[in-house]
Automatic annotation (TrEMBL):
Ranges where the Lon N-terminal domain occurs: 7-191
Listed InterPro entries: Lon_prtase_N, Lon_prtase_N_sf, PUA-like_sf
Protein name: RING-type domain-containing protein
SMART domains reported for this sequence: LON
UniProt GO MF annotations: ubiquitin protein ligase activity
Organism: Mycena chlorophos
Pfam families listed in its UniProt record: LON_substr_bdg
Amino acid sequence: MLRRCLEYHHKPQSTSGFPTLGLMMHMAAYSTTAQYGCIVDILEVQMMYDGRAILQVRGTTPFRVLEDTGNRDGYSVARVELLHDIPPPSRTSPTPRTNPRLFEPAERAHVRDLVQICVAFLSSLRRHGAPGQDVLDRIMRVYGAPPVNDPGLLGFWFARFLPVGDAEKARMLAIRSQRDRLERVIHWISRVAGPEPE
């Protein structure tokens, strides 16, 4: 399967020029595969002596499984629908607030307010590390800088490191609204951070 993907990298969804592959989580508890997954660019392949491969990939586009079309080379194959964000309605978008708080009702929050709450949480991580052991610096070394200027990606960036179950993180692939994804992240942050100080 990997060889096929590496040889056939001029698929329509490959806008970056890299070979692509669709990844889905296997739900072991249900002996099934999730109905949502992600197209990934294959950035690097390291072949092992026993035939296995270590891949470095970058997620690009979520998808929904429309039809399971069987197996090929021992891997599931499916017909999928690529999921792109639905643009927010511009007329009803609320005005950003000066100082949004973590536990204000998120349904009234502007996307910029939600981004600001997420950034404030990141700033708080700087205060939790021992000298020379900055938590945020460690996160950024592993996952890169937070894409604060791209609210569509910011929710996925947080999902990579917040201590939340993989099945719960995978459900974010079905969310097509930047605001809804950020609200989900803020819910996770509130569980991690605990009660907000008065």
